[in-house]
Design goal:
about 270 residues, disordered N terminus
Length: about 270
């Protein structure tokens, strides 16, 4: 009986620590460079937004995302390799989905961001209404995991659109755009350490903001000099980021989060 309770009390996602955020930011950056490497470098979608490159890239990465999330849900316990594979898959498909909506469908960055923000808010509201909490500490059942990963997908896609909107439309450039989002994350961190603002709210704020930070950093790395980027190879940048993520997963302790039932915690 005690073993059953302990098993039920373990979340299927990692404990949220500084290491979690470092890997998350690298994963979101990889999502940008990796998504661009396929759609822009291999499928040449950047030269013709209507050639189907963004749609094909989205289809490829969506299949990988569904497969990774399926493996995550059927896993009996937390597995860091499966979890972070699903996160990377969500960032890459988020990149291609946002680019497809913004460029191929012609919705634009502001329109795409507004639409995705509404979808994200709707996902969180439905999750909260169904389960009574959107705390990641409760992600321990297939049903809650489904809500979690749908929300993740919308947040990653929104982050790409926000990053592009901030860097391109508002003429900040990729470097300045990255600094804006890094400053926003610093504000969230200050609220965490200095106030009693809801930890659940702050988590989702930070989680969402790390995506446009990664998107702008990724664009800074691989966009041409004429657009304010460093013009690094998208493929090599993606390989470097992937190796760094693999190394950090192996080095940084990866412990599952605890379900609030194990701590007498209420959201």
């Amino acid at each position: 009986m005690k073993d059953d309770v302990a098993t039920a009390a373990v979340s299927k996602i990692p404990e949220v620590t500084l290491g979690f955020w470092i890997i998350k930011i690298l994963a979101t950056t990889l999502g940008e460079t990796g998504g661009d490497a396929v759609t822009m470098s291999m499928l040449h979608a950047d030269k013709n937004a209507q050639n189907g490159g963004y749609l094909i890239g989205t289809a490829i990465f969506l299949v990988l995302f569904i497969a990774a999330v399926g493996a995550q849900i059927v896993a009996k316990k937390f597995n860091p390799w499966i979890y972070w594979t699903a996160i990377v898959a969500s960032t890459t498909v988020g990149t291609t989905m946002a680019d497809f909506a913004d460029r191929s469908l012609g919705i634009g960055y502001s329109g795409g961001s507004a639409m995705l923000l509404a979808l994200l808010a709707g996902s969180l509201a439905l999750w909260r209404w169904s389960e009574g909490s959107v705390s990641v500490d409760t992600v321990a059942t297939p049903r809650v995991e489904a809500f979690y990963w749908v929300t993740i997908l919308f947040s990653q896609t929104l982050g790409t659109a926000l990053g592009d909107w901030m860097a391109d439309t508002n003429a900040l450039g990729f470097g300045s755009g990255a600094l804006v989002f890094a400053a926003a994350i610093a504000v969230v961190a200050a609220l965490y350490f200095l106030t009693d603002v809801s930890r659940v709210l702050l988590f989702w704020m930070a989680f969402i903001l790390t995506r446009p930070l990664g998107a702008t950093v990724g664009d800074l790395l691989d966009k041409p000099h004429a657009l304010g980027g460093l013009a690094l190879s998208r493929t090599y940048a993606s390989i470097f980021l992937l190796v760094a993520i693999i190394a950090l997963i192996g080095i940084i302790p990866q412990r599952p989060g605890r379900h609030p039932a194990a701590q007498g915690h209420k959201d």
